[in-house]
Request: fold
Amino acid sequence: MRLSGKDAVFDRIKRSFIRKGLEDRHAQRLLRRMKGIKPLSGVEIEVDGKRMLNFSSNDYLGLSNHPLLGERATEFIRRYGSGSTASRLVCGNYECFEHVEKKIAELSGRQSALIFNSGFQANTSLLPSLADHETTILSDRLNHNSLIQGCLLSRCHIERFRHNDMGHLEELLIKNRERGKERRILIVTEAVFSMDGDQSDIDTLIRLSRDYEAFLFVDEAHATGLFGRNGMGLTSWKDVDITMGTLGKAAGSFGAYVACDTEIRDYLINFCYGLIYTTALPPSVLGAIDAAMDLIPSMDKEREELFKKADHLRKALHGLDFNTSTSNTHIIPIVIGDEEKTMALSRWLEINGILAVTFRYPSVTRGDSRIRLTLSAAHTLEHIELLIDLLRKSKYDFSKQDIHHRH
Ligand SMILES: Cc1ncc(COP(=O)(O)O)c(C=O)c1O
Reply:
């Protein structure tokens, strides 16, 4: 509807922050847009109508297309319907939830599990239920945005420790313990870091959390399905207070879970508002998760092959003088630093049929722009060789001309 006169002026004023926000992002060349994607098969996709090899998805085990997930999703729709009709605390707690949670708990070696609607929703509601203004959260400097938002929402005191620096974490624990025993301390970190592809030191984190009576919260988003006993993450069968794992990445479906003891589960059912005040996941998603949990423990061969391919790619990148940060997993960043150069390389790869997305501020700190390569069990050695050949060629091409003006 077109507004006129005074209404149009008020409308312009009311919306000025939106316009300014978009204009600022545009001026800084940070405006984001979504691409139209069509999955074809395995790691092949169509992007805005163009066929490409995907090196940016989190479908690490290739399960998103696995027939068993689709079949079980359909079966659960037949049994329970398309929607769960309400929050789990009202009448949405269909029997399939507790069935899947029991499976996750058993595989993870924990007393219990609790399904959440997504990793973002879990992190932004779990942390406020565990921390308040009398709590200190000690958070790894490279933690994901969902963890940062969760910390902010809890209105706690936040201190960041240097990435994966256990000495620095201990210094902060000592300092905070001196403030009094009654102060609650929460250590919050990731198991495999989403942007750098390195791993945290879970055993030291467990020791520190015991020594300083701190709660330990580990986000396994990029480790679930790939690491630890039964593939249930680096904290699988370990004594961590709260593990948060996601089901939309290696598990090929959607949602998230918490693995913990029964007392913490009971507490969350009563105090975690992101669980209480939301409609439960649809049964189809529970079906797909159920099937993924049947497949993941037996996928050692796929995991082994995936890590071999990742090692091969990392070595080749080092040979080409690319900086892969501290990566030692299936997530391999090519850290370039300069945003324009990073985007130019990403665009060049796209023209050559490879989707390898740029991550830049605010997803990473300014000047740390990177292409984040993620490998999947569905990548063949030929796919990886093709990527390496293109990256080699890009070095040659980009050394001949100013990439700022390439496209
Ligand atoms: C470390 C980490 N935690 C949580 C999330 C959010 O999970 P979800 O995609 O299930 O919302 C992500 C998503 O990329 C992540 O990287």
Notes: The CA atoms of residues 166 and 204 lie 7 Å apart. The longest strand covers residues 184-190.
